[in-house]
Amino acid sequence: MVIHLTAIHYVYLAFIVLIMVLLIRRRDTTMICVAGILALGVLATGTVSGSVSGVFNSFIYATKELMGTIMIISIIVAMSRVLIRTGINEAMVAPLTRFLRTPALAFWGIGIIMMVTSWFFWPSPAVALIGAVLLPVAIRVGLPALGAAMAMNLFGHGIALSGDYIIQGAPKLTADAAGLPVTSVMEASVPLVIVMGLVTTVTAFWMMRKDMKNGTWRDGLVTVKGTGNVLAANGGEDEQNVILPSKVKKTLALAILLLFLADVVAMFVLKLQGGDATALVGGTAVLILIVISLLAHKNQGLEKITSYLIDGFVFGFKIFGPVIPIAAFFYLGDAAFTDLFGKVLPETSHGIVNDLGVALAGSVPLNGAVGAVTSTITGAITGLDGSGFSGISLAGSIAQLFAAATHTGAATLTALGQIAAIWVGGGTLIPWALIPAAAICGVSPFELARRNLKPVLIGLTVTTIVAIFLV
């Protein structure tokens, strides 16, 4: 496939590099993202008015794409507020304290539970289910909220999603693009997923403990009041907790856990995935919020339901405020560009990001080692749009290209590209993609992305080296 890169491609790439530099230097990127949208708009439309309008329209596009995540986070936060005010949350987590007694046990325990749950139901609904129950336990034993977010994020959106052995959405896409059976890609991915998972999580844990010991740890909290995490935010200082009898709290805690367990069973039986599974959890959370509010506040229950929902939505949009501009820019790398600015890219274009990936693959020498490195880089580049899945078909195509030219293992190269794309774009490095874990834990998604950056890059490097020997 011949890809003709235009000025739009090079400008987009230049702004990506600039944004990454600013993220690494812990600087805000909103202005640069807006400047990037303006520059792309001028190149696409040739008019100032079209470019300026593109800024607003890109914000609307990003908000629509993120609305499902904003909604589930806001609802979970609202439900968590009433559980904390009534003390039901304490009753829910009490039995778990005997297992997660240290920060280390909390980190690995939350991570492993998240990984197993995500295999069956994907990470987004798993975050909502696990965060509401296990985060308070982790905080109590000394694991920072940001550490809990790292565990949920790396094990769920990283290890579980990159392998995707149960639902098999990811390997199906890459295998089809590479012309291979799904089973061969899954088998080839097993050692790579294990290496990537071990290296990344061990590195992240070691760096966290080292920084905490040296006093250089940054919590990245966005909730000022309470203990600093979303599940412990108490809201206004004049609000008083609602006292419920101990037996009532334990009964309600058990009922809530059974409801969420019923959600898990329903997801499995009805084969609900992604947005459908998240919607089930969100609807259940709304019903729990209503019932608990009416029981706890009695005559004021109707007004308190609305109050809790408002608190949840305020928090949700506060979290997403700085994310929307950067998401708006990166969405232009895929279908959003044509939707907003028209068909100005070449006829052979499959989106700015995919074009850059294909151009990279076509400009390097063909051998097994270079093929592995290129598969990783291509996968990582296609993951920059924040979905993780939009570019993995390209990763499969690139793997097929190198395998045919060098007579190396196509399945291994395909799995490697899949892992790189999902670890980068599926929710461990791109700030808006890792928002579910960040928001549930009440930490900055940008700080979470920074904490993940070094472990993920080290993991990708080691995994690529292992893949070179396997091909």
From TrEMBL:
Keywords: Membrane, Transmembrane, Transmembrane helix
Transmembrane parts of this sequence: 6-24, 31-60, 66-84, 104-121, 127-143, 150-168, 188-208, 252-271, 277-296, 308-332, 420-441, 453-470
Taxonomy, superkingdom: Bacteria
First and last residue of the signal peptide: none
Protein name as annotated: Transporter
